[in-house]
């Protein structure tokens, strides 16, 4: 598949098309069923049409050999409905008026100057100067309840680095979290042997108790969905004691799998 050459007279690519393709090469894929998603598809079609017939057929065959399924096994992806608006405001240097929902549920109105967007673990964040707090802050896009593009423009310092700001923000977040007594959001009590404790690295362990040849740990798994994903995949190496809803989920899921295989063996 060597020797590709784009036919410049037939490509018809606009600056927006090139920008969308550039983002996709960085691993930043548009959300499904959005304007940007449609734009990317159209840009790829234009790019394919600019190739010779021979190479175009090779590309079409290659596309059928790969598929990306970004959806989790349990739960669902939290989509950022406003991300296309935010991306455009970043490029156009336009201020945004947002209603932002804090972690506790309180909603406040902010006027922000969006400096850049970051995607981490399938979630979008916007780094923006908050006029209310008079500083650059990180806003989680899924918590933006409403958004309005203002006619006011803004300028930003030429030496601002989104990557540096993001890395510093992460570091400060970790330090702040470590300096406070953590609040347990979704406590899960499990029973396991000592050598399997390492499988749960990364979770906040609220309490631990050694019993003969096993341990009982209580840890924060953040949510029922996360707990299902983690504990079921490790269900042959640990036992969930609490909460009852999680234990019931694993028992019922295991029973379904067992019945499925029994039915297969009886055929």
From TrEMBL:
InterPro entries: CBASS_pafABC_assoc_protein (IPR051534), WYL_dom (IPR026881). Residues 82-149 form the WYL domain. This is WYL domain-containing protein. PANTHER family: PROTEIN PAFC, PTHR34580. It comes from bioreactor metagenome.
